[in-house]
Specification:
Blueprint: H1 14-37, H2 42-59, H3 67-100, H4 108-123, H5 126-137, H6 141-165, H7 170-177, H8 182-216, H9 224-233, H10 237-265
Helix pairs in contact: 2-10, 3-4, 3-6, 3-8, 3-9, 4-6, 5-6, 6-8, 7-8, 8-10, 9-10
Length: 266
């Protein structure tokens, strides 16, 4: 009798190897097509280090004399925009987050409307929202605050809905068995479980909004971005450096503050 053929172990099946090669070829083609479409000019790449050095030399020394009169008021306005925009987004996101959680509101129509609103909010960039509100309300911090709020609704509402759906069902079923109302189930059953996640979402979104509000002024939506845009248009590089250093410092301080607040609250 002939001996049985020894089985040879293979990490991937032929179909899997074919799929891996197909994905690799598709990625290579996409990269090549992207490089062709963005029209990289080699002369500009060669000259970039020299231009960067010239710009940095123009930024020094940093013009801190502009901070008290121009930069500081715009910085405070930026923080106000981020804070009020975050609070407004909570008022809008919480109802849609509840509607988007099937365990809280078991309605397909409500879930569809909630997902539509949340996806629409996330699909539009904050700069595009700012352009729309500048066209409606005119330039200023009001347009920036509304842009931040409408951009944050999708982020906050989606994460809140996911936190509600992942909450353990035990306490909710106990409240239902005791005859608790829908509001009682929401307040005594869901809220204690999602409260840590909710405050983490709020603090994270505020941190993100502080960063985003700094550039909304480039399209006329108020804040420190207006000062930065003016300095760039006038080629006042030392003033640009002061704005950039200020924004960097505020972002670092906001990151530290959010981390400490999370530790205290959670």
């Amino acid at each position: 009798m002939s001996e049985p053929l020894a089985r040879q172990w293979q990490r991937f099946s032929p179909a899997q190897r074919l799929m891996r090669h197909a994905v690799f070829i598709a990625v290579v083609l996409a990269v090549v097509q992207s490089l062709r479409s963005i029209q990289v000019i080699p002369e500009f790449l060669y000259d970039a280090p020299e231009q960067m050095g010239d710009m940095l030399s123009r930024m020094w020394p940093i013009a801190w004399t502009h901070y008290p009169q121009a930069i500081h008021p715009a910085l405070v306005e930026t923080l106000h925009m981020a804070t009020l925009g975050t609070l407004l987004s909570l008022l809008l996101a919480v109802p849609f987050g509840l509607l988007g959680a099937a365990c809280v509101v078991p309605s397909r129509i409500a879930g569809f409307v909630s997902r539509l609103v949340l996806v629409s909010s996330r699909s539009v960039n904050s700069l595009v929202w700012a352009l729309l509100f500048v066209a409606i309300f005119g330039p200023g911090p009001l347009a920036g605050m509304l842009a931040i709020a409408f951009r944050s609704v999708g982020f906050t509402g989606k994460l809140l809905a996911e936190a509600l759906e992942q909450a353990p069902r035990g306490p909710i079923e106990a409240l239902q068995a005791a005859g608790a109302s829908w509001s009682a189930q929401l307040w005594y059953g869901y809220w204690p479980q999602v409260k840590p996640a909710f405050w983490s979402i709020v603090l994270l979104r505020w941190d993100i909004n502080v960063r985003e509000s700094g550039v909304l002024g480039l399209v006329g939506a108020g804040g420190i971005g207006v000062v930065l845009d003016t300095a760039l248009n006038l080629f006042q590089w030392s003033r640009v450096a002061a704005v950039l250093v200020t924004v960097f410092a505020v972002v670092i301080i906001a990151e530290v503050a959010v981390t400490r607040i999370r530790k205290k609250l959670l």
